[in-house]
Each structure stands twice: as structure tokens, then as C-alpha cells.
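Protocol step 4 of 5: obtain the predicted structure for the target chain.
Materials: sequence only (see below). No template structures provided, no constraints applied. The aim of this step is simply to have a reference model before the mutagenesis design in step 5. Sequence pasted as it appears in the construct record:
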Amino acid sequence: MERLRQKRPRLALNREEYGQLKTDVLNRDGWRCQCYGLTMNLQVHHLHKRSQLGSDAADNLITLCASCQGRQHNII
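Step 4 output (C-alpha cells):
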């Protein structure tokens, strides 16, 4: 099994910093799901998973409704 090698340290924020970043992403995205434009049950989703070295950076986050978030994780 090939291991992922990290080329640069990934940004991982503490709880307070991540909470502020989530609010910033929601504001950036107009408090709307970026797939369907819904405004209820919003969640902030990592485009590149943390487990795959995705960072807690605004350019790696998107606002999705719970339904779209579930589809991204195949849990619906």
C-alpha cells in the first residue's frame, strides 16, 4: 500500500479558529448551498478530505446543504 506523502504542512485549525472559518465560508457563499441554492441545514464541506491531506483553508471548503453533503459522503 502506497502512503500519501505530505509535501507541505497542512493547515489544521483549533476549534475556535475553525468555527470562525466556517462562518467566513458561509458568508462568502451567501449562506446558500453551492449546488442547489438552499438556505436550510447548511454545512461546510471539505473539497479534499482531511484524511487525504486536505487542509482547513477557505479555498478547500464549500457550503452545502445536508442533502448534498450526504451525497458527497455517500451516506444518504
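Step 4 remarks: The beta strands are 42-46, 61-65. Residues 15-72 form one domain.
Proceed to step 5.
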